[in-house]
Write a structure and sequence with these properties.
The structure holds two protein chains of two kinds. Chain A is mainly β. Chain A contains three helices and 29 strands. In chain A, the strands form eight sheets. In chain A, strands 10-11-12-13-17 form a five-stranded mixed sheet, with no helix packed on it. Chain A has a four-stranded antiparallel sheet with strand order 1-29-28-27, with no helix packed on it. Chain B is built from seven helices and no strands. The relative contact order of chain B is 0.19. The chains are: A mainly beta, B mainly alpha.
């Protein structure tokens, strides 16, 4: 009891002495004994440090040209939903944190002097000053509003092209568009009505206020839920990674639980305007190595039916590993192999019972001229902090966001405890 | 006659309230575990831990330890209200499981209410039958 009251007094004193900052800084600034590479396993000559810790549910992140790191939180901390982190003394760790924004969410990005951020319904933007600081943190411009939000797959990720367009994913509030959601044997609705207002990427203008579906363009469809997306500046195209379908074993006449654990791929697509990636009618089967008809629509794990014209993945990742961020690396710090290649942060699976869960790592795919030039590999592993994850709650950290610093370092966010990893390379 | 009819729900409620101390027999737990593995474990996980932000945990939550009627209704009707459970919102939808028999539902709920650190009175097939008859 005595201990607690002294602790509380110290906290209050710390808050009074440091009125501009909240408790976040004192927490993340603690000098805890550091584990080698912040607990990560990395390729030779790469190293990692905990840039920050205990920030809350850190979802997507973005680094500004001047090296400020902006973080979107999916739950408010002290009433704030965006953090601005700065490493003023250049020691590779945060030493200054500001917070603002009164909504929670996932999406955040920077383009041409503006910070863009999303709630699960709306998209906002904030003008940045010459130091990349937000000028009016309390009065952002609402550029997009009224997007579908029915809890399931409701996060809105953001990316911009070079022509003033912003791309927003609108996830399907559904697993496979069944008549009765996630119910064994229930058929798929045909046509699936969700496709009108979700399950795709919508394109809006970055500088217009209060746009909704009427002012937007459905840029790509048939995407169940995209959390990770990025603009490939080498070939000027949009790339996305999809959270593929769950629970094939709702149709036990065709699929066992073990088969559900390994068959439906998490697909990476290059999406051009008008692309149809197949959901809910089709999924990419990793055993058949092709796009097949979903069992809700008469599929048996082999039939291809109407799937033949659908967009093919450029990379087919393992089932259920949940790609939450995509980043094309354009920096100069990492070796040549990494230039223009794709980093993908996998949040880790939940839908692999009775097998162990997989994911919880950052993968890398080498690219040449906008196409994968070799097999994907695990780049950074060990986020979960335990050897085997049977239930996702056992994972101590789960990768969720990626950002490239102006020096070429790679930042990875974790939305369990709010740890930010900074990964650097030195020959 | 009318009086007797009126008394039936009262007696059932009283019976539900008073079957508190009977220990859970092993066979019920075994049967419940089997149902759990087939219909529940994928989403709620083998350890009842659920999936953060997606599927609610079944470890000492107010839903699991609270009203049997409410819990039976969740099995029969599923859940898509996304209401807050002990301060968290879970985004996935639970399908109705009204295809399970009264015995299966009683077994699995008894198993859940006495596993994963939980301790609560058993759910009987009679409880399920009663709630099912009054659930549309």
């Amino acid at each position: 009891m005595h201990k607690y009251s002294i602790g509380a007094l110290l906290l209050i004193a710390a808050m009074m002495m440091n009125p501009g900052n909240d408790l976040l800084l004192s927490k993340s600034n603690q000098h805890l004994p550091e584990v080698a590479n912040a607990g990560l396993k990395l390729p030779d000559h790469f190293s990692a440090v905990a840039f920050a810790d205990s920030l809350g549910r850190a979802r997507h992140i973005v680094a500004s040209k001047k090296g400020l790191l902006y973080i979107k939180l999916s739950r408010l901390v002290n009433g704030k939903g965006i953090l601005r982190l700065k490493d003023a003394n250049g020691d590779g760790r945060v030493d200054n944190i500001k917070s603002f924004c009164n909504y929670a969410g996932t999406g955040i990005t920077i383009k041409d002097g503006y910070l863009y951020a999303s709630s699960d319904d709306d998209v906002f933007r904030y003008k940045l000053d010459e130091n990349d600081e937000v000028i009016n943190p309390d009065s952002p411009e609402k550029i997009i509003t009224g997007l579908l939000n029915r809890q399931q797959h409701n996060t809105k990720s953001l990316v911009l092209d070079d022509k003033g367009n912003i791309y927003v994913n609108i996830g399907a509030p559904s697993n496979s568009c069944q008549v009765v959601e996630r119910s064994p044997g229930s058929k798929g609705k045909d046509p699936c009505p969700i496709l009108d207002s979700a399950a795709g990427i919508w394109q809006f203008r970055a500088d217009k206020l209060n746009q909704s579906y009427g002012q937007g363009v459905r840029y790509a469809t048939g995407l169940r839920n995209v959390v990770g997306l990025d603009w490939n500046t080498e070939i000027n195209e949009l790339f996305v990674v999809q959270h593929g379908r769950d629970q094939l074993d709702m149709f036990p006449e065709y699929f066992t639980a073990q088969q559900n654990a390994i068959r439906p791929s998490e697909e990476m697509f290059m999406v051009k305007k008008g692309a149809n990636c197949g959901w809910p009618y089709c999924y990419f089967d990793l055993v058949e190595n092709k796009k097949v008809l979903a069992p809700e629509y008469g599929g048996d794990g082999k039939k291809t039916g109407r799937c033949e014209g659908m967009e093919q993945p450029v990379v087919a990742f393992p089932a259920h590993v949940a790609p939450n961020a995509l980043l094309f690396y354009t920096g100069d710090m990492f070796p040549e192999k990494y230039k223009h290649g794709a980093f993908v942060a996998f949040h880790g699976s939940w839908n692999r019972s009775p097998e162990k869960q997989e994911g919880f790592y950052v993968a890398f795919v080498p690219f040449k001229n906008g196409k994968p030039s070799g097999p994907w590999e695990i780049f950074a592993d060990g986020f979960a902090g335990v050897e085997t994850v049977m239930s996702p709650r056992e994972a101590k950290h789960r990768p969720c966001g990626l950002a490239q610093g102006p020096d070429g370092a790679l930042y990875v966010s974790d939305d369990v405890r709010g740890k930010i990893y900074r990964i650097a390379y030195k020959k | 006659m009318k009086k007797i009819i009126l008394l039936v729900p009262v007696v059932v409620v009283l019976l539900m309230a008073f079957n508190t101390s009977s220990p859970i027999d092993k066979a019920t737990m075994e049967r419940g575990k089997k149902v759990y593995k087939v219909y529940c474990a994928t989403c709620h996980q083998a350890d009842g831990g659920g999936v953060p932000s997606l599927n609610p945990p079944l470890q000492k939550t107010t839903h699991v330890l609270g009203s049997k009627t409410k819990l039976i209704r969740i099995i029969l009707k599923g859940m898509n209200t996304h209401e807050e459970i002990d301060g968290e919102i879970y985004s996935n939808v639970m399908a109705p499981h009204n295809h399970l028999s009264d015995q299966q539902i009683a077994d699995v709920l008894t198993y859940i209410r006495n596993s994963f650190g939980n301790k609560a009175v058993a759910v009987t097939p009679g409880d399920v039958k009663y709630v099912r008859a009054r659930t549309k």
